[in-house]
Amino acid sequence: xxxxxxxxxxxxxxxxxxxxxxxxxxxxxxxxxxxxxxxxxxxxxxxxxxxxxxxxxxxxxxxxxxxxxxxxxxxxxxxxxxxxxxxxxxxxxxxxxxxxxxxxxxxxxxxxxxxxxxxxxxxxxxxxxxxxxxxxxxxxxxxxxxxxxxxxxxxxxxxxxxxxxxxxxxxxxxxxxxxxxxxxxxxxxxxxxxxxxxxxxxxxxxxxxxxxxxxxxxxxxxxxxxxxxxxxxxxxxxxxxxxxxxxxxxxxxxxxxxxxxxxxxxxxxxxxxxxxxxxxxxxxxxxxxxxxxxxxxxxxxxxxxxxxxxxxxxxxxxxxxxxxxxxxxxxxxxxxxxxxxxxxxxxxxxxxxxxxxxxxxxxxxxxxxxxxxxxxxxxxxxxxxxxxxxxxxxxxxxxxxxxxxxxxxxxxxxxxxxxxxxxxxxxxxxxxxxx
Length: 435
Prior knowledge:
Pathway: Amino-acid biosynthesis; L-threonine biosynthesis; L-threonine from L-aspartate: step 3/5; Amino-acid biosynthesis; L-methionine biosynthesis via de novo pathway; L-homoserine from L-aspartate: step 3/3. By secondary structure, this protein is α/β, with parallel strands linked by helices. Helices cover 34% and strands 24% of the residues.
């Protein structure tokens, strides 16, 4: 057996401790699959005294994580610090510049700096691996980069944030409102004390931009993604969706359309959607994640599993280490960075589809006629309209589903209603997932 792959671990939170536990527990099978031992040599974290449930005395402790990049007894640095910039990015750049392999679970850093890091890794002939950055233990990065490599992928989409999925499916099952379920998710550890990155869709958008690059051979363009979250979804929306044969899910969707079409370019959006009950995403519950990719020869691929947490994320990190131990690594985004296409953002307004709209309106005559007139003047055809109960402020809930049409028409209708004295609050728009 070859000499051991020597690893430095930066970040000893839940996932870092999980990596140590996995290597300890599955040492024999990991070594057999890697063809050699994988040994953690040094670790770094902010708090040396914290009990992490693992024996750290056998490893060298380094206070400054950046120093791990310069150690001669290290082959690979694993970064589990987090954050798009700061210590994580410094460590990544120094590790790769020093000719050492780099493994990370940091989707924010990849979304913002992944192309530069990948290009540097190619120049140094080292691995830049990040299976754990998207969908935890689900092998979707490997699936797209390797398993579906021979296919032209037309669309990739899915449920990319377990916190949001837990909140929405709990609201669905128990009929409770968002704020109450979010508080419960925080108490159970599914949501952070500051949940903004999750519930506002930013975390899912980081992951989507990475998946889009892999799927379409394009440069990462996180800034071009349209992002909205779930904080304005109410129990009545979920009940109405169920009555119509849908479930509400936060969906990240990316499509690449050819030049010459009305929707040419790369489309990326994270937003709550109505998902038909017959679609597999409608049945992804709790904190699970799921990704769908559609290839021109392989057809629809569906990946589902635990998208976060100690075990699944540690599993993905160690899988990357096994690949490196075997010498199995290539371009981080399936092709050299210089071959990745520069794709312009696709115009969302030209996309065609159906939409769900919910209004809270004043309880007085003429309100429905005003909404219907705005829809008519914008060219939106209404498929169904339902008035449902009252709101705490004395208003009335009105929900409608549109016929298929260009998205710009719905946006135009909402713009026509802006400032109307008949509306109490901002309308809720959710697109219907018809794929």
